[in-house]
């Protein structure tokens, strides 16, 4: 499902996934605080306020302490996201409730600690908030109330903000699979009573909407490929259905998610690496290439991307994490990163440009299905705009190094000729594997038809600014190219 609303796209393109989730959660807490003055919740506004600050303090202190012990770069943004989720799903307690306050603290400590301790090869397995809540449930015998989903007055805000998050990470397919399986299970569970009423009540008065939009779509603990995401959503949905149990153990939303997290870990790449800068070079106007060496080798496919984390002081609203395509081929020794700088530049890119040889950053969450077709006989057409050339640099270098002479056309658009990046790679590909290239500052429909006359027989890959990608996707469909032959590069975060 691909929804294109201009002003929504403009907003989402200017904010990172993490920052969007952060502001959505904070907004829900603020709205709940206001609504609690009208006795719409079982707790007072002061209990919510106390719990909110207690959870934030516990999460922040735990994160700083463990990051210091493990000597890793702390990610404050993710700490607040976890703290806000815990605030929204654990029942707020009053200042005088010592046991309740202790439960909140333990949930917070376990949630943050799980990111560092419950890891395999530095990749955490479980959703932090879910494991924190599950552990406190076992210790105290009191499970999460998921109060964020139980009040109609809060539902419109949960729904709208949740849709924005799902749109940002493009997980509508995952949402539909989970919802279909979970709601079908609810209907069956409450037979012979009115199944439609049961479904409606579940949507209006349960954690379903918040759970599916915020918890299920969390990228670090969910699968990277579409088919595995479908299976993952189905598994979690089955255990999400009310009163599902194994022997005497009854599943709750958080434990259902933990089961899915195990499946996601098994089927996902286990990549968490430290990269050391070898060299940096300017390869075009405003375009820089970074060559890194990894502390351990890892496998990837040409066209895939990583989440890059760079610790720097006072990060701006875009945070200290970015998703970038790996610009290098798996056949190369170094890991290459290509970026385009703009003014005003983000603090992340300023810090990146300030790196000296020998400095390090960390990468993880290898993902992406923007990869070459398995059939080497398929004809390919690459359409790149600006720094969207990086996945094609990876693919084409791979084809050159493996001597694969696939029928490939590259259409590369930049505002100015001196902004063309990696042209030497494409020139070499022209000579060695017969790559056909076309460069222009704006590629029109007429030029596309002229340069790719057999366009209906090709698989198109489009990478670049969102507006360009949407425009070419529309053009190709109007020309009769089947949607399954149009591949679009996607990042869940702002690059």
How would you portray this structure in words?
It is a single chain. A hairpin with a 2-residue loop joins β1 and β2 (123-124). This protein has 17 helices and 15 strands. It is of the alpha/beta class and 495 residues long. The radius of gyration is 24 Å and the shape is globular. The strands form four sheets. Strands 8-7-10-5-6-9 form a six-stranded antiparallel beta sheet, with helices on one face. Strands 13-12-11-14-15 form a five-stranded parallel beta sheet, with helices on one face. It has a two-stranded antiparallel sheet with strand order 1-2.
Short description:
With 495 residues, the chain is α/β, with parallel strands linked by helices.
Strand and helix map with partners:
Blueprint: H1 6-13, H2 17-35, H3 45-70, H4 76-89, H5 98-114, E1 119-120, E2 123-124, H6 128-140, H7 155-169, H8 172-189, H9 195-205, H10 208-215, H11 226-240, E3 245-246, E4 249-250, H12 253-267, E5 272-284, E6 287-294, E7 305-309, E8 321-325, E9 335-340, H13 347-353, E10 360-367, E11 379-385, H14 390-401, E12 408-413, H15 423-433, E13 436-440, H16 445-451, E14 458-463, H17 466-478, E15 486-488
Parallel strand pairs: 11-12, 11-14, 12-13, 14-15
Antiparallel strand pairs: 1-2, 3-4, 5-6, 5-10, 6-9, 7-8, 7-10
């Amino acid at each position: 499902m691909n929804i294109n609303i201009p002003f929504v796209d403009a907003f989402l393109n200017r904010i990172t996934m993490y920052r969007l989730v952060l502001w959505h959660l904070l907004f829900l807490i603020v709205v709940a605080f206001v609504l609690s003055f009208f006795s719409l919740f079982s707790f007072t506004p002061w209990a919510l306020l106390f719990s909110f600050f207690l959870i934030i303090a516990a999460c922040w202190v735990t994160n700083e302490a463990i990051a210091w012990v493990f000597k890793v770069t702390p990610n404050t943004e993710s700490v607040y996201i976890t703290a806000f989720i815990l605030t929204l799903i654990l029942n707020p307690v009053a200042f005088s409730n010592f046991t309740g306050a202790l439960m909140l603290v333990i949930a917070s400590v376990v949630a943050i600690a799980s990111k560092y301790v419950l890891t395999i090869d530095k990749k955490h397995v479980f959703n932090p908030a879910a494991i924190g809540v599950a552990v406190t449930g076992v210790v105290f015998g009191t499970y999460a109330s998921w109060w964020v989903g139980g009040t109609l007055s809060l539902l419109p805000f949960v729904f709208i903000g949740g849709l924005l998050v799902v749109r940002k990470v493009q997980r509508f397919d995952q949402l539909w699979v989970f919802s279909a399986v979970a709601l079908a299970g609810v209907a069956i569970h409450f037979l012979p009573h009115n199944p439609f009423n049961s479904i409606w009540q579940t949507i209006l008065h349960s954690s379903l909407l918040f759970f599916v939009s915020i918890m299920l779509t969390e990228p670090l603990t969910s699968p990277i490929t579409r088919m595995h995401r479908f299976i993952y959503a189905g598994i979690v949905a089955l255990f999400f259905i009310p009163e599902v149990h194994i022997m005497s153990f009854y599943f709750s939303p958080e434990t259902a998610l933990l089961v899915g997290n195990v499946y996601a870990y098994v089927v996902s790449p286990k990549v968490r690496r430290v990269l050391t800068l070898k060299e940096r070079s300017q390869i075009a106007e405003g375009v820089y290439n970074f060559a890194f060496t990894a502390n351990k080798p890892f496998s990837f496919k040409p066209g895939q991307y990583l989440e890059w984390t760079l610790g720097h002081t006072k990060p701006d609203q875009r945070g200290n994490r970015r998703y970038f395509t790996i610009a290098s081929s798996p056949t190369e020794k170094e890991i290459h990163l290509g970026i385009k700088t703009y003014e005003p530049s983000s603090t992340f890119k300023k810090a990146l440009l300030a790196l000296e040889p020998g400095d390090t950053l960390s990468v993880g969450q290898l993902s992406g299905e923007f990869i070459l077709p398995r059939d080497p006989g398929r004809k390919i057409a690459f359409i790149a705009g600006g720094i969207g050339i990086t996945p094609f640099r990876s693919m084409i270098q791979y084809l050159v190094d493996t001597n694969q002479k696939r029928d490939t056309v590259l259409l590369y658009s930049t505002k100015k000729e001196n902004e063309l990046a990696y042209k030497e790679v494409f020139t070499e590909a022209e000579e060695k594997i017969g790559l056909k290239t076309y460069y222009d500052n704006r590629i029109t429909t007429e030029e596309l038809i002229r340069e790719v006359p057999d366009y209906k027989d090709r698989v198109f890959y489009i990478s670049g600014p969102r507006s360009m990608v949407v425009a070419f996707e529309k053009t190709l469909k109007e020309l009769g190219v089947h949607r399954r032959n149009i591949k679009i590069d996607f990042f869940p975060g702002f690059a």
